[in-house]
Design goal:
By secondary structure, this protein is α+β, with helices and mostly antiparallel strands. 17% of the residues lie in helices and 35% in strands. A hairpin with an 8-residue loop joins strand 7 and strand 8. Helix 1 packs across helix 2. It starts with a helix and ends in a 5-residue tail after the last strand.
């Protein structure tokens, strides 16, 4: 039976291997058997940006309230995960309503607050009825009804109506299964 430490070490090694493959493709280099690529080289060659980490979980389930006095940490992430670092934050996911989108309980999502009009296949970060949640945002063909749609059949769609406060605050641009703290 593996431990969390064993799992994290395996994830770290797999991540390093994937980074080396991406790095070689981007640089169009052939793999070299005579000299292994170490993690320091990989990190040095990847364009990293700083993204604030909000110490509050966003619900992938039913919306939760969010403390407005949270103090963000900063995490370095590859630029491909975050095109607009100046308008992005990372948050931990709590809940399983987006598992069909590959977003699991405990994952971290990158939310770009400058992207407030998500496409149907993109995950929106929304304020809904006083809480915050991530869901797909869909508008019916007739344009009269809008819905927050989970990616898990255990959860119902939530209709966006005039009697519920609603705002799209951004779009999820990336997520990771690796615990960053």
């Amino acid at each position: 039976m593996s431990t969390k430490t064993d799992d994290l070490q395996l994830i770290t090694r797999v991540t390093a291997f994937i980074k080396s493959c991406i790095n070689m493709v981007l640089q169009q280099q052939e793999p070299r058997d005579d000299k292994p690529i170490d993690n320091a080289t990989l990190i040095k060659d990847v364009d990293l940006v700083d993204v604030p980490v909000v110490d509050e979980a966003v619900r992938a389930g039913y919306p939760i309230m969010m403390d407005n006095n949270v103090w963000p940490d900063v995490q370095k992430v590859p630029r491909w995960m975050c095109r607009h670092p100046e308008s992005s934050v990372m948050m931990r996911v709590k809940g399983d309503s987006m598992v069909g989108a590959g977003i699991l309980d405990g994952d971290y999502v990158v939310i770009d607050k400058s992207l407030r009009n998500p496409a149907a296949n993109e995950v929106a970060f929304c304020e809904y009825d006083g809480g915050y949640t991530i869901k797909y945002f869909h508008v019916d063909d007739d344009g009269k009804h809008a819905w927050l749609v989970p990616a898990n059949d255990k959860y119902p769609r939530m209709e966006v109506t005039e009697d519920k406060s609603f705002r799209i605050w951004g779009t999820v641009t990336a997520h990771t299964h690796i615990d960053i703290h």
